[in-house]
Design goal:
By secondary structure, this protein is an alpha+beta fold. The chain is built from 4 helices and 6 strands, in the order H-E-E-E-E-H-E-H-E-H. The protein is about 30% helix and about 30% strand. Strands 1, 2, 3, 4, 5 and 6 form a 6-stranded antiparallel β-sheet that branches.
Length: about 160
């Protein structure tokens, strides 16, 4: 194989990002459309949820979620000698925030019918790029808060350990 297969690479990066999100302790789900990556869904408190998807450039082409970049030629020999690595990954994604007002529990809590609620609303999106995966998630949440004045609290996943 001479060149990477784009859809396989895209799915691999999506699974890697999903694994990183769950290791940070957040509940997340990979959403696919026609057997290829669509987005990662993170539920949040108060009927918000976040969709993480690939950034699209000005031509409408999806950029990869992870890009391996070699170090600059000035520091490359030093880094190879010091840590044995010739580069690092840059993480990049679009974080779209949605509010789901049609949540069934909200209907029951407020004695409303489905017609009284507006349904799913897109609040907006932010793009975030960084070399640290943890900063990708935390930085995007901070940027969302600063941009839209909304505090998003992603749902934490339940530990698989037994409770005694």
């Amino acid at each position: 194989m001479v060149t990477p297969i784009a859809d396989v690479e895209e799915n691999m990066f999506a699974f890697s990002m999903l694994r990183g999100i769950t290791r940070l302790g957040y509940k997340a789900k990979l959403v696919q459309h026609e057997d290829s990556f669509s987005h990662i869904l993170i539920p949040a408190a108060d009927n918000y949820y976040i969709e993480i998807s690939a950034i699209e450039d000005e031509d409408g082409i999806s950029l990869p979620l992870m890009v391996y970049e070699e170090y600059d030629e000035n520091i490359l020999p030093l880094m190879e000698k010091a840590i044995g690595v010739n580069g690092r990954y840059r993480y990049q994604a679009t974080f779209t925030i949605y509010f789901d007002d049609s949540h069934m529990q909200r209907i029951l809590d407020h004695d409303k019918s489905e017609d009284d609620l507006c349904g799913i609303a897109c609040i907006g999106d932010v793009e975030y790029k960084t070399y640290s995966f943890q900063e990708l998630i935390q930085g995007a949440l901070y940027k969302i808060q600063r941009t839209y004045d909304i505090e998003i609290y992603p749902t934490m996943r339940v530990s698989h350990r037994k409770a005694f």
